[in-house]
Amino acid sequence: MSQPPPFVLPPDGPGSRVRALLAGAGRQRVAVALLALGALLAAGVVWARATPHLAGPATGQDAAGSPAQTLPRVAPAGPGGGPGASAAGAGGSAGAGTAGPGAGGADGRVAVHVAGRVRRPGLVRLPAGSRVQDAIRAAGGSAAGADLDAVNLARRLTDGEQVFVPGPGDPPPPPPPGAAADAGAAPPAPLDLNTATLEQLDTLPGVGEVTAGRIIAYRSAHPFTAVDELLEVPGIGQRRFEQLKDLVTVA
Amino acid sequence: MTRGPSRPTRPDHDADPDGDGVTLAVATATGVALGTRFPAAAGWVVAAGCLAATCLWTARPLRRRGGSGVAAGLLVLGLLLVAGGAAASVRATAVRGGALVGWVGRPGRVEVVGAVAEEPRRLRYGGRWVVLTVDRVRLGGRTRRTRERAGVVLGRGGGVDRLGVGDRLRVRASVARARWGDALGRRPPVVLRHPVIEERAPPRGAVGGAALRASEAVRDAARRRALASLAPERAGLLVGMALGDTSLLPAALEGEFRAAGLTHLMAVSGANLAVVLAAGLWLAGVAGTGRRALAAVGVALVALLVVVTRWEPSVLRAGVMAGVVLGGVASGRGPGGRRALCLAVVVLLLADPALAGALGFQLSVAATAGVLWLGPAAARALPPWIPERARGAAGMTLGAQAVAVPALALALGPVSLAGLPANLLGLPLAGGPMLLGVVAAATAPVAPWVADLACRLAEPFLLALIAVARWAAGLPGGSVTLAGPARAGPAAVVLVALAVARWRRSPYLACPAGPPPDFREDGPSTR
Question: Which of A150, B77, B160, B508 is deepest in the core (most CB within 10 A)?
Answer without folding.
Answer: B160
